[in-house]
Structure formats: structure tokens, C-alpha cells
Amino acid sequence: MNLSPIPLAIKSTCPYCGVGCGITATPLPDGAIAIAGDASHMANRGRLCVKGAALGETLSLDGRLLHPALRDSEGVLRQASWDDAIERVATGFADIIAEHGPDAVALYVSGQLLTEDYYVANKLMKGYVGSANIDTNSRLCMSSSVAGHKRAFGADLVPGCYDDFDEADMIVLVGANSAWCHPILFQRIARLKEARPEVQVVVIDPRRTATCEIADLHLPVKPGTDVWLFNGLLSYLARSHACDERFIEQHTSGMAEAMVAADTELLDVARTCRLDPHDLLAFYRHFEATTKVVTAFSQGVNQSSAGTDKVNAIINCHLVTGRIGKPGMGPFSLTGQPNAMGGREVGGLANMLAAHMELANPAHRAMVQEFWQSPRIAGKAGLKAVDLFHAIEQGTVKAVWIIATNPMVSLPDANQVQRALEKCELVVVSDIVGTTDTSAFADVLLPALGWGEKDGTVTNSERCISRQRAFMPAPGEARADWRILCDVAQRMGFGGFDFESAHEVFDEHARLSIHRNEGATVRVFNLAGLAGMDARQYEQLAPVQWPVTPEGAGTARLFQDGRFAHPDGKARFVATAPRAPAHAVSPEFPLVLNTGRVRDQWHTMSRTGRAPRLAEHTSEPFIDMHPQDALRYGVREGELARVSSEWGAMVVRVQHGEGIARGGVFVPIHWNGQNASDARVGTLVNPAVDPVSGEPEFKHTPVNVERFGVNWHAFVLSRSELNLDSVAHWTRVQGRGFVRYELAGRKAMLERSAWARELLGVVDADADWLDYEDSSGGVYRAVHVVGERIEQCIFLSPRPDLPARAWLAELFSKGTLTPGDRAGVLSGQALGMRADAGATVCSCFGVGRNMICDAIIKNDLKTVAEVTACVKAGGNCGSCVPEIKVILVETRVRETA
User: Fold this and answer.
1) What proportions of the chain, in percent to the nearest 5, are helix, strand and coil?
2) Alpha-carbon distance 570 to 551, whole Å?
3) Cβ atoms 522, 536 nearer than 8 A
4) Is the per-residue pLDDT at 99 higher than 60?
5) 586: how many CB neighbours lie within 10 A of its CB?
6) What's the farthest any 2 CA atoms get from each other in the chain?
7) How remote is the C-alpha of 348 from its chain's centroid?
8) In CA terms, which of 298, 467, 599, 732 is 20 to 30 Å from 70?
9) DSSP labels for 701-715?
10) CA torsion, points 491, 493, 496, 498, in degrees to nearest 10?
């Protein structure tokens, strides 16, 4: 009898957003990895969004950085040994420190790192190099929340937990398109709304996003006016006698000053925020009347030159009503990255110390140095992200080590970042992929382990520590980031870095959290129950929320006893005098740019860009703008536009459809030089930062939009990569067994067939090349067949409305093209094949808009559940449910018109 072993599922944690979903990864006999949600994990209870569900499609080694590389004297990166690479980094840093001091070097790290990686990086810089010049891309998304928490509570503490959403009677979502950016948490809210329709959901966002589909009220606030809005709420609550006087007296201070700053009238707030006064009053009244209120906020609040004040204006409203530290209520920061919270635990920001200790506090500095037994300790705050890259350009920082992030794409004023890296004496980059916009400037490239290969912990938005576990071997010569950092530290002659495993690093981190954590130096962050674990206990560690008691019990909610982390135990009201964004619109730049994520992509797409199904919903960079603004500025939907600001420019396709108000535009953050010709939105974004947090103002940059004229549009589907140096505009899209390119050119096309052959690399005159040309109409189509299988095809037209791509993509899965297939390609439409499914709505099941519309009409469908039962759309992660609701309404309106 031949019995195959049953593969064992390995529990891990999703590497995307801060919800922190548990995942099971099961290696299959064919080498694939089956991904599923972990039903036992408190964050997601078995559910996954489409990004998490597609993780198995992102694990190939294509494009991976597998070996160290050093740039030689001719400027060429060449493979090198680990010994040579470590020597280059250690010697380079040591020489610069010896000549210019410790502040002449820096690390720039990432919320993608595991806590163990983060810990070693901070120990090296702050305790051994002796500089706090280590900052993180979490500065770009969560630092305003950190600063707001510290001002209000005395430490960076998230009071509540996800269960509070289940118990709330009102949920306010501020600057958070949760349906797309935190889909599992959004679906939790949606299920609550279905079970308890009386729960009020309010969305405060300049755009009408997918999140608004479950909202009872949408307040399309004018960008940058959130402080006015919540100051108005604070003033309204005081005048309505909704204050919890006992809580305020016993547990807070600073209310009088906050009230002076917030003093305003409702009509003035409505006018400033550009809101209907009746809607604003309805929100204020609901908030006043509802005890169990959760106010969840994310990047729309944080990414602002007034981000910290926005956070405190929200917290003030919960303090004045005493709605904090109890089930179903409180302010809740929705973290952007999988370990932005863990990074903060170990002092990942340039103005923090490990274990929630303060860099500005001499006693805390002494405690950390004592615990580390380090030769020195940083004595002042280091450079925050934007300031760091300015210092690199100015030459005061001469070496930078960039780990697990892509600042050439993610930082504002990205052209300045390029200038900085070009001038920097030593640029070290640790990454998992071989080619990024940032690694192009590296003097040293170091191959790191990726998700599924590395081992450690992460902490999500509700303070839940979860394990990421390895279920694949290390590829090539890749190493864990903590190991690389230790190797460099030891080569520099530093002790204290003799860790042999991630478990040993975590144990030191946990022990530091309890070091002198008592009496006058007591801290809320405490991992007492996790200190001293052996390797087996660490391996089996189940998700737990800190603080962790000595007995190992987690803590769901903070401040239940009314005691906060300030020395007097009281929370602070913070006076938040409202102020406008740093840069106002002008005749030259009359529109306000907002940036953010799309549903199925993540950061700079180095992982999600590998999964074909994640490219199906939104395949190209775009600018979303109001149709009347498009008419005014001479651009049309589906065509290309040049978007420019004082800091840079980009070219993207125009679309309408995100419910954006006149005067505003939206561009996603994901595309970069590896997958588009000119789509780094960071080149446009202004470099203004919040004066407290240092977080950039990604949500408000004045821009102009104008037509980007082209002579032709085209797309190519190809099994091989193309050289696109001669093409004015292009976007690369990963397909199943092929790559799709969307192209446009400004020069007149004279010899279309010759141009197409050259572009596709078809030099053999006897190649199986079928084409069709309408010279007068400027239309050209061709297909290249090798054997009986399609190798490439190209469609070209002076108009952007080219044939649907989906049915052509299906041909690449066929081993043999039929005569009908060939005829269909040349005619530009499917012959004898099923109808075009339309633009993808449900990425989980590949269901298109046309399929859903047809099913609604033919089967008289009236609800999302009926659509799901009929065509499966919406039946997995639920991210597409808001879109299906809109399609239901639009389709039935058309049918009854």
C-alpha cells in the first residue's frame, strides 16, 4: 500500500496590512503552497482578503536577489561573496564614523521587517554606533498616530481591540477606505451592520469610496479640514452637556485649553469643511447620543502636515465623554503595515528608544545602555525620514543602509531622493528582489529572506503579537535581516550581537521590556509572560496582545482603570488650533492631489505585482477626477494625462468613478519604474511634514492636469519580456503565462509591421507571423505563433478603446491555436468564444462586470447574496461586495428606465 504523507499546515501571519491576519501555509507535493486563513487567529477568524489569498502566487524566485553584489570601479554591480560584502559595509561605515562621527551614517528601515530584525537594527545604531539616525517607512504612515498617542496618553498606546467594533453602536471611519485597505476588518463591520442594522456607520472622507457603501452617513470633508470638524464636535459636546465631568476631573488634564482652541460654531465648521450643515449636525447628534462609539482613523488623518493635531482632535472627543478603555468604544488607529506596531515597540523611529522608552529621557537612556551593556547610547533624536534624505543630499550623512523599503518610490519629492542617493558615498540596500528603483543606486546589494522563508514576530493594530514562520528553505545565499545586521556589527568589532536564532533576539527584546519596569519607571509595554521562553515555546507561541502578564495572559483593552501612562496617571487634552495644509492651490496648480492604495495591490508591488489575479481589477496607474474637471482641463476618460506639481510630473490614464469632488484628484501609490514608464506619484508629492511627527503630507499637494497627446495606443501580450526604451509610455502587467504591456507613442507610425516585429524581437523572416493592417484607419493587429501555440500578439490603434484583453489572455493557456482563434485575433474580437466577461470585479473568482450585469438581468437578482450564489462574486474575501452593490443599483436603474 502506497500511503502519501498528509502535508502539515504551518501557521503564520499575512505580510500585508496591519490587520495582521493569521494564515496557514501547506506545502503541496508539486511544490506549490496552499494558502488559507487561520480560523483560530483572533484577527481574522479564518478569513483572508484577495491579497492574502493570492500569497501562494507570489513565492517564485523570478527576479529574486539571491547573492550579494558589489558595484565595481566601472559602476557595474557584480556578484560577490558574503565575506566581501560584509567587509565592504562594515569598513565603509567604520571609516566614515571615524572621520565624520556617528551621525554621518544612517539606517532607513521598514514596517515590513520582523520585530527581531527591527530590534537588532536599533540596538546597532543607538547603542553601538551611538546615533539615532535610524528611521523607518512607518514614518510615512503611522508616526502622527504615535505622536498623538504619546501626547494624549503618555506613550504610544492603542487603547482598544477589534472586538470593540463588534460591541460598538456607532463606528466612525475617518480618512480610512477600509473596504480596500483593511478589507477583513471592513467585512467584520459589514457583518455587524447586517446583524444589527441600527448600528450607525459614518464615513468621513473627501472621496466616496467603496467603504461608503455600508455607511449611514458620508461626510465628504474638504481635504485638510479634519481638525475643524472634530474641534467642532468637541465644542458641540461641551455645549450639549455631554461631558463626563467625573472622568474629566479624575483622569484628565488640559481640557480648558483644548476648549479654547476648539471654540467654534457649527455653521462655521460646515462652511470651512464644505459640508451640508444638516449632515454635520446629524453626525454630532449621533455621536452625542451614542455611548459605544469607536472612531477608527488611518492615512487620511495621519498623512498631513497637521496629522498629529488631527489625531489629538479625535482623541479629545473620546476623553471629554469618557468613552475610552471600555468595551465598544475608543479611538482606534488602523495601522498601515504588518509590523509598524512591532517596529515602534523596539524604538524603530529616530526619536524613540526600545521598549517604549524615551530617547529624550536621560534615565531611560541609561536604563537601555545598562541593559545592552553597550559602549555608548544615542544622546539626541536622529533624523526623520524626509530630513534624513535631505541630509544625504547635503552631504552631512555620507552612508545609508536601506532595508526592506523602496524610498525612491515611497518618499515625497522622489526626485530629491534620487539626487540624494546619487551623491551618497555609500548606499547599501538589503532586499528580496534584484531590481528596484532604489537598488539601482546601491553600492552594495544584500539578499534578504522573504515571507515564507524568514522567522520571527509581528504586531498588528490591536497590539497582537503573532508569529511569522518559515515554511520554505532560504533561496540562494539569502539571509535573515537580523543575521545580516549581526554580521556587520561583529565585523565592526561590536559585542552583543552573538545571537544564534530569532528566538534569542526576541527573548532579549522581551527581557528589556521588563527591565526596571516598576515604580517611577513603570511602562505599559511589558512582555513579562514572554520573557525567558525556550526555543520550543517561542516556536509554539500563539497570538497574544500586550501587555502580557507574568502568567502569560494578554490584555485586550488598556486604560480600563482610568490610569494613563503620563507620570500623574492622567490623559491629556491637547489644544489643536486648526491650520490649513502647507501648500494652497494656485492658478498654476489648481487641483488637490490625494494619494493612496487600490484594492488588490500593496506598496510598490514587488510582491503583489507577481500575482496575475491581483492585476485584473486595476491594471494601470490612473488619475481619478471629476468629469467636469476633466472637461475643464481638456482631458478625457480613457486617455492619457500629464499630472504635474511644483516638485515633479507623471503620466497616467484618466478615469471617473471614485466619487471624487470637483477640485480634487486621486492617484494610487503603487506604480514605479519597474512596471511603468512614468508613474511614480512620489515625484509629485510635496515634502511638507507635520512639525511634531515628521509625517509627510501625502493627501494634499496642488497639481495641474493636462492632456498628454499621443499618436497611437497599443497593447502587447507576450511570453517574453520586451525592451521598451523606444516607447514613450508603457505599463507592465503580469498575466498568467505572459506579460501584458499597455503602450502609447507620440511619433507617427509609418511602418507598423516592421515596428511591431522589431518591438517583439521577431527577426526570422519565416516566422509564423499573421497580421492585419488598415492603413487609412491606422489600425494594426498581429500574432506570432511558435509551433501551434501563441507566442505574442499586438494590437495598435490611434484610439485608446482597443479590444478586450481578457479573451486574448485565455489563448495563452491553450496548447494549440485553432483556425478560429487565429481569425479572432486578426479580427479583434472573439469568434465562437464566450462573451467578454468585462472588467474584473471579483479577483478571487475572476468574475467580470459584464458577467455580473448579465446575471442580474437574466435572473432578476436583487441582493449581493443572490449575485454570489449565481456567479460566486463576493463569496470569498468580500472585498468586491461594495462594488457589487453599486452594480446592482446601476443595472436595475437601467432596466427600469
Assistant:
1) 35, 20, 45
2) 27
3) no
4) yes
5) 10
6) 88
7) 18
8) 732
9) EEEEEEE---SEEEE
10) 40
Whether 352 shows a pLDDT value over 80: the answer reads yes
**In this structure, what DSSP letter does residue 433 have?**
B
* CA distances to 22, 43, 345, 561 from 529, in Å: 21, 21, 16, 21
3 state DSSP class of 696: strand
pLDDT of 168 higher than 70 = yes
Integer CA distances (angstroms), 300 to 136, 221, 315, in order: 19, 11, 16
Round to whole Å and give the CA distance between 193 and 209: 17
As a whole number of angstroms, the distance between CA 821 and CA 830 comes to: 8
β-strand pairing of 544-545 with 464-468:
antiparallel
Q: Which of 800, 436, 793, 438 is nearest to 609 (CA)?
A: 436
Give the CA distances from residue 448 to residues 62, 138, 485, 502, in Å, rounded to whole numbers and listed in that order.
15, 20, 11, 14
Coil/strand/helix, residue 295: strand
pTM of the model: 0.95
CA atoms of 865 and 879, how far apart (whole Å): 14
Q: Which helix (H) or strand (E) holds 793?
A: strand 789-797
* Cell matching residue 458: 509581528
Q: Which stretch of DSSP H or E encloses residue 464?
A: strand 464-468
pLDDT for 1: 37
CA nearest neighbour of 49 among 468, 244, 338, 476: 338
The 3-class SS string of 352-391 reads ECHHHCECCCHHHHHHHHHHHCCCCCCCCCCCCHHHHHHH
From the number of C-beta atoms within 10 Å of its C-beta (0-12, 13-18, 19+), residue 762 rates as middle
Q: Rounded to an integer, what distance in angstroms lies between the CA atom of residue 390 and that of residue 135?
A: 13
What is the spatial distance between Cα 224 and Cα 852, in angstroms, rounded to a whole number?
Answer: 38
Dist CA 878 CA 884 (whole Å): 10
Give the whole-angstrom CA distance, residue 45 versus residue 24: 12
Which residue did the predictor score with more confidence, 103 or 845? 103
Nearest residue to 542 (alpha-carbon basis) of 557, 526, 532, 529: 529
How far is the CA of 585 from the CAs of 361, 516, 600, 623, in angstroms? 41, 52, 31, 18
- Residue 177's φ and ψ, nearest 5 degrees, are -85, 70
Query: What is d(CA 583, CA 862) in angstroms, rounded to the nearest whole number?
Result: 46
The answer to whether 44 touches 24, Cβ cutoff 8 Å, is no
Give yes or no for a contact between 432 and 416, defined as CB atoms under 8 angstroms apart. Answer: no
Q: What's the first-to-final CA gap in the chain, in angstroms?
A: 66
- Give the residue from 510, 519, 577 showing the smallest Cα distance to 548: 510
Task: Give the whole-number percent of the chain exceeding pLDDT 90.
Answer: 86
Which positions ≥6 away from 374 have C-beta within 8 Å?
A: 123, 127, 128, 368, 496
What are the φ/ψ torsions at residue 453 (nearest 5 degrees)? -115, -30
Q: What is the DSSP letter of 271?
A: H
| Amino acid in position 689 | V
List strand residue ranges (DSSP E) for 527-610, in order: 544-545, 571-572, 591-596
CB 115 within 8 A of CB 456: yes
pLDDT digits (tens, 9 = 90+) for 18-27: 999 999 999 9
Cell of 266: 457649527
Output the nine-digit C-alpha cell for 379: 544622546
Handedness of CA 308, 314, 316, 319 (dihedral sign): negative
Alpha carbon distance 39, 22 (integer Å): 8
Strands of 200-204's sheet in order across: 217-219, 200-204, 170-174, 293-297, 330-333
User: Are 184 and 47 within 8 A, CB to CB?
Assistant: yes
| Helix or strand (DSSP H, E) at 624 | strand 622-625
Q: What does the angle CA 174 – CA 192 – CA 324 come to, to the nearest 5 degrees?
A: 55
Cell of 497: 550581537
Interaxial angle between packed helices 115-122 and 481-491, expressed in degrees from 0 to 180 and rounded to the nearest 10: 20
Query: For 394-404, how does the pLDDT look when each residue is reduced to its tens digit (9 = 90+)?
Result: 999 999 999 99
Three-class SS of residue 859?
helix
